[in-house]
Amino acid sequence: MSKRKKIIPTLKELREDLKEMTFKEKVDHIWTYYKEYMLIAVICVLLLCATVTAVISAQRNIVCTGVLVNITATPRGMTYLEEDFAKSMGYDQKWDQVEITYTNFANMFSPLDGEDYYTAAQLVPALIAADRLDYAIMDDQTLDFYAQQELFMDLHDIFSEAELQELDAQGLVKYVQLKHYDAAGNLVETEDPFPVAVNLKNTKFGKEALHGKDTYFCISGRGLDMARRAWEWILAYE
């Protein structure tokens, strides 16, 4: 026995049919005859929205990039660093974007870590190499790991000497002593220690948004002015 072909009514016939129906009957009737077309329309709308979103995202100007390494921030803290910071700077968030990235890798000093560890650990150097990083916030151990790679700038680039002295008096400045191997294979210090990071533990942002842990703010070379603004924004957290 052949299946009976469903005959789709014309719009005129549909209007006549719907006149005498209840709301539920109208919905059932329309769904019965037009569900394929409705599903196709919904799919087309979703594809269009996805395409438009992708185009807009591709055209966005990344005005500031930060990275949180091996630490977590509260949802309010993340909103403060991204959307709120962009608004405070007067950026059009449709086209301008502040981008904060997370990366976490466990057992940092273990040689047994695999590909996932390597990929996560290389995010910061990759962002710096691509000239896409303004600042980073990380824990003490991670900072020691990266600092010896000479990834971060001397804090004198964005802080005055008086500011650094005040922070140093509070024990908040982290210094790094670079080392290298000489011709004889000995590990020797290369120059005087320099200030590479500031501990955020005494700031309200550090206490509330970063869970009160020792976390360090350090700067990259992409945009020193933007790094300074980000620092001032962190201090202004309420």
The gross shape turns out to be: elongated
Work out the count of structural domains.
2
Q: Name the CATH class of the largest domain.
A: Alpha Beta
Topology pattern, helix = H, strand = E: HHEHEHHEHHEEEEHEH
Enumerate the spans where pLDDT stays under 50 for 5 or more consecutive residues: 1-5
The fraction of residues in strands falls at: 15-25%
Number of helices: 9
Mean pLDDT: 80
Q: First CA to last CA: what distance?
A: 75 Å
The helix content is 40-55%
Main-sheet strand order equals 2-1-3-8-7-4
Short description:
The protein has 238 residues and is of the alpha/beta class.
Account of the 3D structure:
With 238 residues, the chain is of the alpha/beta class. It has two domains: 11-56; 61-235, 3-Layer(aba) Sandwich (D-Maltodextrin-Binding Protein, domain 2), CATH 3.40.190. It has nine helices and eight strands. The chain has a six-stranded mixed β-sheet with strand order 2-1-3-8-7-4, sandwiched between helices. It has a two-stranded antiparallel ribbon with strand order 5-6. The protein is elongated, with a radius of gyration of 28 Å.
